[in-house]
Design brief:
2 copies of one chain form a homodimer.
Chain A lengths: L2 H16 L6 H8 L3 H7 L3 H22 L5 H18 L4 H7 L6 H27 L9 H18 L7 H14 L3
The structure holds a DNA duplex (18 and 18 nucleotides).
DNA sequence: GTCTATATTCCGATAGAC
DNA sequence: GTCTATCGGAATATAGAC
């Protein structure tokens, strides 16, 4: 992994651990045993790093979508849900939630990339549910888009709320989502 | 409203608008036409203000619970959901979500009060659902606690995600929650 | 309770040597 | 690409006058 990629990975983790406004270039420099100024060589501004992190997330999502394109709707949905399970294991939160709460304090360019990411997530989950409904493996009353929103908001906030209530609450929420989709009307 | 109360109200709004780490005492001082140092007279540290904001939220919640204690489960649930509708109208997010994403960058004392607030919200919604199930006005398969978590996470993240996707998504989510509870098995 | 003034620390960012 | 050195700005916080 190049230094640039390592910086992006560390920035990503820091945003999801402490929030965009709470981390500094020094946090990254210390981890990498380099100096503050060296980070600026790779990313002139903190906003530039934020954008790179979001573009990395977009690329990762597209790879996952591509890798699961021939799989069943159940497999796709489980792959989607396991994104959050991995984040939970790290004790962190989703980047969409983290940056959404700070939205009015970050550069507009970050907001633009964040919205793109959110749209792509919503679009994918909507398609998964749509396919599952057609193939009669998922059952739900709402539109696919609304149901996708319900599932995404459940998982996104499960990471946040389970930091405060009980760590097991994350699994309870995840399991309930899966079960509910399988209940025939 | 006393100056102290006004500062708390402004701090609350700023946390839910920009995040805890993005607002400064100067934001509040400017709004009140007083100086930075005057804020410190009322709240020695930013952490003190954060705690006061959270205690204010706890008090507000307890008042709401008390005011609705004799009402029906449906009325209680609608009262709970309308908390978020009001926040959405302001374009802000829920304080629980905002501070949960910044949890590892704030003072431990803030984390303690935030957890108390989250527990009280979860406890209330769980009781509302429990009562609704007993009285056969709400229908759901999960435990009351899990269903409460599902509903709370939906609303909390609906505020965050609808900043990014479509403002109308908030209403779609809210309406789906209400409808789903009324569906008989 | 609010003010002026100031101390202190931290952060983002740049210049220029190596 | 990384370093040293430094600038400029912002933010938290305190001292002491009014």
């Amino acid at each position: 992994m190049t230094t640039r990629e390592t910086i992006i990975a560390l920035g990503d983790q820091l945003i999801r651990d402490k929030g965009f406004n709470a981390f500094s270039f020094y946090d990254i420099a210390r981890s990498l045993n380099i100096k503050n100024a060296s980070i600026h060589y790779h990313f002139p501004s903190k906003t530039d790093l934020g954008i790179a992190v979001l573009k990395g997330q977009q690329d990762g999502l597209r790879s996952l979508i591509e890798a699961y394109s021939k799989k069943t709707p159940e497999e796709k949905l489980l792959a989607f849900l396991s994104i959050y399970t991995r984040i939970k294991a790290e004790g962190k939160v989703c980047i969409v939630g983290s940056l959404a709460t700070d939205l009015n304090s970050v550069d507009e360019k970050i907001a633009v990339e964040l919205k793109k990411l959110a749209q792509e997530i919503l679009s994918w989950v909507t398609q998964i549910l749509d396919e599952g409904k057609r193939k009669k493996v998922f059952y739900f009353r709402e539109s696919s888009r609304t149901r996708a929103l319900l599932i995404i908001t459940n998982m996104l906030a499960a990471l946040q709320v389970s930091r405060l209530t009980d760590e097991n609450d994350f699994s309870s929420i995840k399991n309930a989502i899966i079960k509910d989709l399988r209940v025939k009307p």
